[in-house]
């Protein structure tokens, strides 16, 4: 189909509707000319592509401490205020010491009494021992003195312990900094009566809140669609409103396992650590976190609204004013495109050492076109996932059978028995002697010899090829897609491509397109409307008698 193309990247498609002779004779008004369809175009360009995960959060100190007093009483002195920097042991406040001093003096007196009773009880026990030897007193009377001596010993231990506690409590009235840091909040004033943190069930009165601000962190919530791309120790860039022209570098400390649902959106808390020895960051600052997930340098990119899925070709053609019955896609092309995409992305398509895809130079190479066709049929809804799995299983079985036949044929030609080693090397014991073979069966780890005939080994089929077709093996997943290319004459062609990375604005094209080619842009709202119309027409055909 051919249309006029102006210089501003907009195609105008006139759809003039002319009245027939019968309509003019009957006196009907001639229909007005329908406005042309304006098609915006954009070129495929080389640009740097950065894929990032972004979130917002609030800065908070890693170590935050509430300072409380072990002693109850009135605050007599305060030595620090909010914002002060303190070292470990710095005096922060003093509490009225009269109660603890009284308790200390009482404990000293109790200890003196306990010592005197201990001396008396010891002397009495000795005299009663002599009287028992002289048979002046009975054994029962002597045992009574022994009990009094034991009680005196217990009282002395108790009094000694109480004095030690009273001595320690004398230091409780002076509150000192437990660590180096900054006073964030002062929550008491001079003359205020506070409660002990150890003697009150409520936990006592908080005097100060302090923190070490050398290490800060940002607690963010990341959408579950992005959290799968993040890992601990990944670098993160943090920006705060206080320093709009400056960035701070941190790293992900951890991703918490428990999800949080915010306004019906499932999110995961992600903690980002920051070095704040410069002292610029403050607790409570709003922070924007950006984590670089992946990037491409000088990648061939197109706008996202220039790419459609294979199942969206028909409605996209209608949006562009094309006949969806005429616009067709050769799905077999995707096999070669996947190979090109893998080469550009640096992905090894086969685990074996043969030439071509999956050692495709041999008779047992995998038919990539067939695999691409299966994937396209899945995306278009022609077959189900179960059917696709059955087809892939049949392909794998055919692959194994072909390899077995090829190996048996080679073994017969060589006149020896093939032995597969753990490292992928193979030897053959021939009738006339022994010689190395490199063109035989691949090793258990999928690595073939120098002359491997085209089999990927045990992990061959399910490795790079399945990853290139979008499998979850850890390799980049290449996605089959379609673009509408507009040539200089205004002709529009639906062309299969392979799409790689994508951000909010642009998508990477790994195969099927050249820099500078013009592409038609398709509005998302228009595309959705056409899809809804097609769905309604399909549903209408399925209803019997129009009911």
The unreliable regions are 1-35, 350-366, 415-475
The backbone outline, from C-alpha atoms, is elongated
**Average predicted local confidence, pLDDT:** 76
Alpha-beta classification: alpha+beta
What's the helix count? 10
In what order do the strands lie side by side in the largest sheet?
Answer: 4-11-15-13-12-16
Strand content: 25-35%
Total E-strand runs: 24
- The rounded distance between the terminal residues' Cα atoms is 38 Å
Radius of gyration: 42 Å
Helicity range: 25-40%
Structure description:
The chain has helices at about 20-25, 100-135, 140-170, 225, 315-320, 335-345, 370-380, 385-415, 460-470, 525-540, and strands spanning about 5, 10-15, 35-45, 45-70, 75-80, 85, 90-95, 175, 180-185, 195, 205-225, 235-240, 250-255, 260, 265-275, 285-305, 305-310, 415-420, 425-430, 435, 480-485, 490-500, 505-510, 520. A hairpin with a 3-residue loop joins strand 22 and strand 23 (about 505-510). It is α+β, with helices and mostly antiparallel strands. Mean pLDDT is about 75; it is low at about 1-35, about 350-365 and about 415-475. It contains ten helices and 24 strands. It has a six-stranded antiparallel beta barrel with strand order 4-11-15-13-12-16. It has a four-stranded antiparallel sheet with strand order 8-7-5-10.
């Amino acid at each position: 189909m051919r249309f006029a193309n102006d210089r501003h990247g907009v195609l105008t498609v006139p759809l003039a509707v002319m009245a027939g002779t019968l309509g003019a004779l009957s006196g009907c008004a001639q229909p007005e000319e329908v406005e042309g369809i304006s098609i915006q175009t954009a070129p495929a360009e080389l640009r740097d592509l950065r894929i990032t995960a972004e979130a917002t959060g609030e800065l908070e100190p890693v170590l935050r401490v509430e300072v409380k007093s072990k002693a109850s009483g009135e605050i007599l002195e305060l030595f620090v205020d909010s914002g002060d920097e303190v070292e470990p042991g710095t005096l922060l406040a003093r509490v009225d010491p009269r109660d603890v001093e009284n308790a200390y003096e009482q404990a000293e007196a109790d200890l003196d009494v306990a010592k005197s009773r201990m001396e008396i009880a010891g002397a009495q026990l000795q005299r009663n021992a002599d009287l028992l030897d002289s048979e002046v007193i009975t054994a029962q009377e002597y045992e009574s003195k022994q009990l009094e001596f034991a009680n005196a010993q217990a009282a002395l231990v108790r009094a000694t312990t109480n004095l030690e506690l009273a001595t320690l409590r004398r230091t409780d009235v002076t509150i000192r900094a437990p660590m180096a840091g900054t006073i964030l909040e002062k929550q008491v004033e001079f003359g205020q009566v506070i409660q002990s943190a150890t003697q009150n069930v409520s936990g006592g009165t908080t005097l100060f809140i302090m923190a070490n601000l050398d290490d800060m962190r940002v607690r963010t919530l990341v959408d579950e669609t992005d959290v799968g791309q993040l890992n601990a120790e990944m670098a993160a860039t943090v920006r705060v409103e206080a320093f709009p022209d400056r960035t701070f570098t941190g790293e992900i400390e951890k991703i918490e396992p428990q999800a949080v649902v915010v306004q019906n959106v499932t999110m995961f808390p992600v903690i980002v650590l920051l070095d704040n020895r410069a002292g610029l960051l403050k607790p409570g600052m709003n922070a924007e976190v950006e984590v670089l997930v992946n990037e491409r340098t000088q990648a061939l990119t197109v706008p996202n609204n220039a790419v459609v899925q294979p199942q969206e070709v028909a409605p996209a053609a209608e949006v562009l004013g094309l006949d969806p019955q005429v616009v067709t896609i050769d799905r077999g092309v995707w096999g070669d495109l996947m190979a090109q995409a893998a080469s550009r992305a640096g992905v090894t398509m086969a685990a074996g050492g043969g030439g071509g895809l999956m050692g495709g130079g041999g008779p047992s190479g995998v038919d990539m076109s067939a695999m691409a066709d299966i994937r396209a049929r899945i995306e278009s809804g022609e077959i189900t996932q179960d059917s696709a799995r059955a087809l892939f299983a049949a392909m794998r079985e055919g692959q194994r059978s072909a390899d077995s036949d090829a190996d048996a044929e080679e073994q017969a030609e060589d006149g020896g028995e093939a032995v597969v080693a753990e490292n992928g090397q193979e030897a053959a014991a021939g009738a006339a002697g022994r010689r190395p073979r490199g063109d035989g069966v691949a090793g258990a780890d999928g690595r073939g010899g120098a002359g491997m005939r085209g089999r990927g080994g045990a992990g061959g089929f399910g490795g790079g090829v399945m990853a290139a077709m979008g499998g979850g093996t850890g390799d980049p997943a290449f996605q089959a897609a379609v673009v509408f290319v507009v040539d200089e004459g205004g002709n529009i062609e639906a062309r299969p491509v392979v799409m790689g990375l994508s951000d909010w604005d642009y998508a990477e094209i790994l195969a099927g397109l050249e820099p500078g080619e013009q592409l038609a842009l398709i509005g998302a709202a228009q595309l959705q409307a056409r899809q809804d119309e097609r769905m309604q027409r399909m549903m209408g055909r399925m209803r019997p008698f129009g009911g």
